[in-house]
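Is this the right way to post structure tokens for a design question? Let me know if I should format differently. Anyway, here goes:
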């Protein structure tokens, strides 16, 4: 599959996950951003922000040669709406970046760095291929946090226990 066809297909996959992800993010109250289920777990606000920013990774992977997770600038949302707007902007940016892909572009090297040190190297295509799965994984984690806080879990791939209309 050439890079243009891959990118177009990837846009469809991203779009398929966008609405359910937004529905989850819309339900995360800012008052619970610092909550976490275990001392080793991420805070709810950080996890929600991670889910909201993963589409931004797509943009960075296409336009840049690396992401340094230690210096990557994160939004510091103070409201749920800021979080959701950030997600929507990141999806829009990812879609635009994917639409700009040219053949051969995704064979370029991409590095994940930590404080400038290379932690992982792959092609841009290989890094992109796992990104939506990464978002879906953390969205699933987010739904567990939601359940533990008695936040209604929206329908994702079918009705949830909170969203049954049958």
């Amino acid at each position: 599959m050439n890079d243009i066809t891959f990118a177009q297909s990837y846009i469809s996959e991203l779009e398929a996950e966008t609405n359910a992800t937004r529905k989850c993010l819309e339900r995360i109250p800012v008052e619970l951003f610092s909550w976490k289920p275990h001392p080793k777990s991420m805070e709810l606000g950080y996890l929600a922000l991670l889910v909201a920013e993963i589409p931004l990774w797509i943009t960075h992977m296409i336009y840049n040669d690396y992401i340094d997770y230690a210096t990557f600038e994160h939004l510091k949302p103070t409201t749920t709406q800021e979080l959701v707007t950030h997600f929507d902007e990141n999806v829009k940016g990812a879609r635009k970046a994917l639409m700009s892909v040219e053949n051969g572009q995704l064979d370029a090297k991409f590095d994940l760095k930590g404080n400038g040190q290379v932690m992982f190297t792959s092609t841009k295509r290989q890094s992109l291929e796992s990104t939506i799965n990464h978002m879906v994984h953390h969205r699933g984690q987010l739904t567990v946090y939601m359940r533990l806080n008695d936040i209604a879990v929206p329908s994702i791939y079918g009705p949830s226990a909170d969203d049954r209309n049958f």
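Format looks fine. Someone answered above. Worth noting: The chain has a mean pLDDT of 95. Residues 124-148 form the longest helix (25 residues).
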